Amino acid sequence: MDFVLSPEESRVLGCLIEKEVTTPDYYPMTLNALVAACNQKSNRSPVVEYDERTILRALDHLREKKLSILHHVAGSRVPKYEHRVVERFAFSEEQRGVLCLLLLRGAQTAGELKGRSGRLCSFSSPAEVERTLGTLVGHESGPFVVELPILPGSREPRYMHLFEGMPELPEPGSVAYPVEPARAQLEAEENRIAELEATVAELRQEVAALKAEFQVFRKQFE
Asked: Which residues contact 217 (CB under 8 A, 6 or more apart)?
């Protein structure tokens, strides 16, 4: 890649990719919608509190790197934004989904990516995720993903995107304590609950938007 993103740019880009798939009726996105998406408490790691100026700065830099554009929608009173990642690099649906998750949630195993990809794309097994990761490692415009060393106590390697450059790798022989089985189960349960909460929140936003559109439509005929 001929660019390096900041953490803010990665978060904004990930949100644009995610919302294009999960809430297409509200894509391209307004600045307010992007603020809410970037600062979600669920399905994000780390959780952040970006203000409008931070996100606008990130959008400007993404546009300079030809990764997003300002989209002018007929009839809209506010500017809207969309990404250009798929068009620029010809990513498949599966590649787009994996990169989106890595941008929004950091390093993950193939199993974690499969479990979290349901709303973005479809994988039949972790092995299929690994094949997609392999295509991103060997991509002609990449690599876009790197495999991280297996941590002590873990069975699977984690993968990380390279949009922010090569991540800092642990020193050889450094100590990493394994996660207790109960802790892993608790985190998995919390992730499932968080994903359900995020889905409910998005549905509520859609219902609220539909209600607002209905009110405007009704006033036109009063």
From this structure: none
Looking at the domain 1-89, which fold is it? Arc Repressor Mutant, subunit A (1.10.10)
- What are the tens digits of pLDDT across the range 27-55? 999 999 999 999 999 999 999 999 999 99
- Continuous segment of H or E residues that includes residue 171: none
What tokens were used for 151? Answer: 């941590």
92-178 CATH fold: Arc Repressor Mutant, subunit A (1.10.10)
Model confidence over 146-173: pLDDT tens digits? Answer: 999 887 777 889 999 999 999 876 555 5
Q: Is the peptide bond before 181 cis (omega within 30 degrees of 0)?
A: no
Contact 39, 198 (CB under 8 A): no
Taking the CA atoms of the chain, what radius of gyration do you get in angstroms?
19
**Alpha carbons 137 and 107: distance in angstroms, whole number:** 15
- Sheet harboring 108-109: ordered strands across? 108-109, 158-161, 145-147
